Amino acid sequence: QVQLVESGGELVQPGDSLRLSCAESKWTAKIYATAWFRQAPGKQREFVAGITWSGTDTNYADDVKGRFTISRDNANNTTYLQMNSLKPEDTAMYYCALSSKIPTIFWGDYAYWGQGTQVTVSS
Q1: Of 22, 49, 51, 121, which one is least surrounded by beta carbons within 10 A?
Q2: Rounded-to-integer distance, Cα 108 and Cα 96, Å
């Protein structure tokens, strides 16, 4: 029903910024929310940030509050994650995901996933 393509991940140094993009297409059902998750080697997939498609309701993991900003551009069917003041612990594969109902921060609540984009923060 939905195709998601992430982009923007790359190797950066601590303190740098990146903007990740999630291009959305081919959906047929009403989508309630979009979220970003990340997964580092040896760790479980973790919630990073979420946003309703209205753009008025956002949610962030505690360790990214004040550094990351999630936003939507409905005209271009794209969800963004602006990542500032990046730290080595932000290194992970970042995924975008969509839910057709009110989700929690649990990854299993999201039915549609992209293939991910790698973010590496290292000096």
Answers
A1: 121
A2: 13
